[in-house]
Structure formats: structure tokens, C-alpha cells
Amino acid sequence: MEVDLDDVLKSVTDELFELYIPAEVETVEKPVSPSQILSFHRNYVQKNVPVKITGCIDAWPALTRWTDDYLVSKLGDTEVTVAITPNGLADAICDEKFTLPFERKIKFKDFVTEIQEPRDDRVLYLQQQNNSFNTEFSKLMSDVDSAPKWSSDVFGTDLDAVNFWMGDGRAITSLHKDPYENIYSVVRGCKTFTLFPPCDRLHLRYRSYPLSRYNEKGGIIPEDGVVPWINIDQKNPLRDESRDLHPVVVTVSQGETLYLPSYWFHHVTQSHSTIAVNYWYDIDYGPAYGLYQTFDAIARAKGY
Prior knowledge:
Elements (H helix, E strand, L loop, with lengths): L4 H15 L6 E4 L4 H12 L5 E4 L7 H4 L2 H8 L3 E7 L3 E2 L1 E3 L2 E4 L1 E6 H9 L6 E4 L5 H4 L13 H7 L3 E9 L4 E5 L3 E9 L1 E7 L9 E9 L5 E11 L17 E6 L2 E5 L4 E6 L3 E9 L4 H15 L3
Helix pairs in contact: 2-7
């Protein structure tokens, strides 16, 4: 008897949604006690599903301190790495090329001045993902919890990196996934995440794009290499009308935190001058990893 692989895969993914993958993101309070930590791990980490959390950063001085004036008083002449693009799309497809942002070091006070009065011809974004909070923004350390105990307890592992994010409302993070457990806290403004579960890898098409980079004037300069990236609308993945995709949209506002599990695809937009701090933890190479690798192998075999 012949078996239709697509029918089998649809049956499997339908069952995943019936059992535990959410149609919308739940909101819970920060786990504190050992029993709450265990419950959070079982309900969200073990199942590899996102959840919005309240109360994680209520005690942070940053919530009330981080005005532009305060930040400039702390960081004014500090040189920070800024991603610069003509359109807000860094690390994204432009003109059929995977295009990196132009990066340069500028004084933080000059960055804030341009955020307050944005230029029409370029978009600035602080988006360094190399433990940037602990390197370029360490003067703000006393305003946050630099290594939250509750999340280390939830994941059972030490913190890998802490990153600082701030930028123009036109800055967009194109659809991608990360091999980390992600705790993402919004200190000012709001961010909207469009999420796709790992099983949607079966229907998200990757293509290989020539590598390039913006120059300071917004032109595109070729670089050596190719990058596999998702072939979907870079500004709004919801424009893809595939019935096989299962987007979940969640807005994380000031004072809220998102647990974004490893291998969930995510696209991010933000209000102007939003500030966020996120924590990356190494993944546990368990069932969630194995399941994603299975979906990825099948998608590759189908030419996706």
C-alpha cells in the first residue's frame, strides 16, 4: 500500500497542535518557588512552547530610570556598535542577496540624538548579539538583574550571553530561528513577535543567497559566500498565504518578558526607541532538538 508522506506529516503536526502547541501565547506570572520552577519547566520548557511572563523585571531600576537623558548620562561618550541600513532590514534578503548591515562605532549620545530625530535615508539599531550588554553597556549593570536565578533554575544551566537592544521603530528582524533558549524582557516600548513553531520548518522554504553588506551610503557590496535564508516576505511573513503555516503573534510590552524556546522561528517589529534586554541559555539536546532535526531533514529532502 502506498503511503502519501505529506498526509503522514500533516497527521503528525495536527496531533502536535491538538496536544500542546498553542494557537496563542499564554501569560503567566514569574515562577519563584521550587514547585513553580518545576511546573514552568514541565509546561513550557519541556514542551518547547512560548509563554509571556509578568513580574520578571518589576524590581529592575531600569523600568523607571531608562529615559534618554539617564542613558546618555551613563553612556554618553561610550562607543557602541550600531547597525545601519537604508530600510531597517539588517540580516535579511534585499535585491535577491542576503545583506548584512553596515556597522560602525559611534558615541551613544550621538546614537540617541539620531533616534530622537531620525534621518529619512537610514535606520539605526543597536542589535549586537555577542554578549553586548556585558561589554558595551556594562555601565548599566546595576539597573538590571545581570544573571536571573529563576531562569537559570528553569533551564538547569548557566547563562550564555546577555544582549542589549535599542533602535528605530523602522528596524525589523527578519524571520529566523536561534539555537538558544531565550528570555526576552522589554524595558521600554513594545515588540511584536510573529512566531512559527518548529514543525513549520516542513513548509518554510530556504534558499541560498549571495552574501553582501550595505555600505555607509546604503549601497550593496558583494562579499564572499552564500547564506541559506527563509524565502518569505522579509517585512511581513503573514503575507504568505500558505495554509500549512501556523503563525502565532504576541506583543511584549514594557515590563513583560517572553520565553522564546529554541528553534521557534520569529520575526520581530517594535515601537520607536524600544529597549530590551535578552538572555540566552544553551539548549538541552533532548526531544525538542531531535524533533526539529527530523523536520529539517524531511524539509531538505523535499527541496525546502
